[in-house]
Amino acid sequence: MKRIIEHTEDGSATLFVPELNEHYHSVKGARTESQHIFIDMGLKASAAPQPHVLEIGFGTGLNALLTLETAEQEKRPVHYTGIELYPLAWEEVNALGYSDNPSFERLHTASWEEDVEISPYFTLRKIKGDANTVINSSFSPSVVYFDAFAPEKQPEMWNEQLFRSLYVTMNTGGILTTYCAKGVIRRLLQAVGFRVERLPGPPGGKREILRATKVIGNQELKQSIIQP
């Protein structure tokens, strides 16, 4: 699949996929969007002292990089799991110029399917696969970054069963954030049990984003393996 580097309005780069007519990040600001939606509204809103972050769509690793930087700044240990069906090569990601921190390269060159300590405050596990089939009761995330391509481009990722699987595996108080504020997505999240908020979007970007919170535990469902 062909990908083209394009620069966004905050000066940071993203990848454009002509086949899908879709960008990996907002053209209004790649880094600005990721920082606002996933770090400020997600990670920093979590009360978990040692959060387990689950990212749906590892992509360029920008969300993971910002999480790593935040974990080290706050001295707050994070276990980070990224699920990606179509991994990018390090050479392609490096060309985006996100960071010269050696830890960023380690995010992309780390082994798959095993825990890898990137820093004393950041442990990474990358899973190559489809989130629709790999999510199970062992995940227990406290924060979910839902960063799949847009529903009209990747509709198979925005379905009630996947949201239900995430809800069941999450701890009470768990948070899911996403850039997509469409009414149909908000209703799907509510249908599986999340309390959903519409929050202001990133500066200069989308008007609204969504944050969903699990407010009631469901231990009975959590004992079973969740499959579509």
From TrEMBL:
Which biological processes are named by the entry's GO terms? methylation
Q: Which organism is it from?
A: Bacteroides stercorirosoris
- Domain MnmC-like methyltransferase, by residue range, is 115-214
Keywords recorded for this protein, A-Z: Methyltransferase, Transferase
Q: Which NCBIfam families match?
A: tRNA_MNMC2 (NF033855)
Q: Which GO terms describe its molecular function?
A: oxidoreductase activity, acting on the CH-NH group of donors; tRNA (5-methylaminomethyl-2-thiouridylate)(34)-methyltransferase activity
Out of the domains of life, which is the source? Bacteria
Supply the name of the protein: SAM-dependent methyltransferase
Name any one Pfam family assigned in the record: Methyltransf_30
